[in-house]
Every structure is written in C-alpha cells, then in structure tokens.
Amino acid sequence: SVSSVHRRSPSGDGLMALVSGNTFLLLLGSLGLVALYQLLKRMRQKAYIQDAVVVITGASSGLGKECARVFHAAGARLVLCGRDKGRLQELSKELAAVSDSGRKTYPPSTVTFDLSDTGTVASAAEEILKCHGRVDILINNAGISYRGTILDTTIDVDKEVMDINYFGPVALTKAILPSMVQNRSGHILVISSVQGKIAIPFRSAYAASKHATQAFFDCLRAEVEQYGIEVSVFSPGYIKTNLSLNAVTGDGSTYGVMDKNTAEGWDPQDVARAILGAVGSKKRDVMLAGLLPTLAVYLRTLCPSVFFRIMASRARKERKAKNN
Ligand SMILES: NC(=O)c1ccc[n+]([C@@H]2O[C@H](COP(=O)([O-])OP(=O)(O)OC[C@H]3O[C@@H](n4cnc5c(N)ncnc54)[C@H](OP(=O)(O)O)[C@@H]3O)[C@@H](O)[C@H]2O)c1
Known about the structure:
By secondary structure, the chain is of the alpha/beta class. It folds into two domains: 256 residues, 3-Layer(aba) Sandwich (Rossmann fold), CATH 3.40.50.720; 33 residues, no CATH class. The protein is 57% helix and 12% strand.
C-alpha cells in the first residue's frame, strides 16, 4: 500500500544522512587516491634521479651549487663543471663527506672549462662522458648577467654574454647529444629566466641570450622526442645569488652591485628543489615567478602595446633614478 511504501522509504533527515555519508566516503576515497598518486609520483621521481649521471654547469656558486647539493642528496652521480677548479673540488669534498643513511650517494667528479670558449667545449664534453660513460641528465645552469644601455654597450659585451649564456650551453648540448641519441634516453635542462620570456630595459644582452636559449631548446625538444630524450626549460625570477655582483656592464667591467631585486629574490635552495621536482616529473617548461612577472608575460602576448608602454615608463624611471 501507499502508506507501507512511505514507511519503507527514508525520511528527509535519513536521506540527508545517507547522502552526506556517501559524500564523505567519496571525499575520503578521492583523498586516498590523491595521496596514492602523490606517493607514486614521488617514488617515480626519486627512482629517476637515484644513480643517474647528472652534469651541472656553473656548479661553483649560487643556484648551481645548491642544485649540486640537492641532486647529490637525491642519489645522483654528479659531474660538477665550472671555471674555478679549487671551488669545484671544495664542493666535491663537502658533498663526498655528506651521506644520507637512507640513500646511496656518490662522490662527485669535476671538470673545469670555460663555456665562452666554444672551441674547448667538445674536449670538455669528452672528459665529462669519460667520468661515467654516459650522461643521463645535463643541467645547463652557468650564466652571466648584464647591466647597461644599448647606446653605451660595445658589441664585444653583447657577444660575451651570448657566448656564455647561449653558445656555450648550445655547444655543450650538441657535444653530449649524440651519446644520448645512441642510448635512446637522456634529459637536458637549461636554466633560462623570466627574461627569456619578456625583455626589460637595460638588460638587452641578457634578455636576448635567454630568449635565444628558450627558442633553441624549444626546437631541440621537438627534434629529439623521437629518441626518448626530454628537454626542459626552467625560467626563474630573481634568486638570491651573486648574479648581479658578477654581471658585466656596457664597457666590459664587472657591475659589482648586489641589486635589491636579487637580494630579495628566491632562496637558491628552494629553486634547486623546484628544479629537482621539475626534472623528476619531466616538466617541459617551468616558470618560477611571482604574480607580477607572470602577468607581465601574459600581457606581452595578449596586449603588447600596454606592455611596451609599461617598459618605456620603467626605463624613464630607472634613468631618472640613476641621474639623481
Ligand atoms: N640569480 C638570479 O636572479 C637568476 C634569475 C634567473 C635566472 N638565473 C640564471 O641562473 C643561472 C645561475 O646563476 P646564479 O644566479 O647562480 O649566478 P652566479 O652565482 O653568478 O653563478 C654563475 C655560475 O656560472 C658560472 N660561469 C660564469 N661564467 C662562466 C663561463 N664563462 N664558463 C663556465 N662557467 C661560467 C660561474 O662559475 P665560475 O665563475 O666558477 O666559472 C658560476 O658558477 C644563470 O644561468 C642565470 O642566468 C639567475
């Protein structure tokens, strides 16, 4: 009868309890799945780095040094590169003395060479390959910054910045690439910059070198996918390192100033951890930046005339501040 049907069907409150009970179970199940997915992802990332031969250029200071620490702790067999043999050996000794009881770690090797001398990069690559017979992950990190006006900058300075930031990593990548193609595996990461996506005044040589870097490695990614080789471009905003101190100026002298933006930038250790994560999860293009630079990148694409106006006003303000 109708009344017995009414008696058997749940009341309004009961229905609510049933629905919220099911929602709770669904939520719990989803959280469990997310946790499991994260765990599996972390395990896969760890396995990707453990025992891998990882080459880091510019390992003697700043971001490269922190990458060395983070990848060493993750169980990579490191080859540390830079121009300063003493600093590389010091870091190698420091890392060799650190061992994580939970993970197998390896004492790093070092290879000394100047990236701006593209003629010697091929022999440096041979030396790098001899360390472990292969390269699994190449981190093109070394770089130099620049400060100056285009009017007052000699073409030699433009070439110097381009040699270190662009032709050096390109030459090293080309020298290591055939062995990766032969192995049908490998990962090449380059540290670019937000300035590889947008150009800001008084950084012409630097921004140009990073834009070229982005373009080259984007082309490379498409060309080597068929060989199972991964390519990542990592573009951070300001990082608290000596980059501005070591920057070159328009006449070729060293800038020697710790810029406010750099001093207030990201902690290099946090950036190195983000790089480890990006490599482990094979991310292809990562920008590590705050809201304003991120908006600026979108503005440059979607509304270029507004972006150009903002940059011109920034140039006027910077020039005025310098003249005062
Ligand atoms: N700091 C930032 O705000 C920031 C922001 C975005 C992107 N980045 C990028 O991050 C990367 C690392 O820079 P950093 O901030 O760590 O600066 P850093 O402390 O000045 O380190 C630069 C490294 O590059 C190496 N290097 C410079 N010229 C070289 C050459 N001719 N040949 C070989 N190695 C050379 C240096 O090694 P030696 O002097 O020992 O040879 C040093 O280890 C650079 O590509 C930079 O463009 C930095």
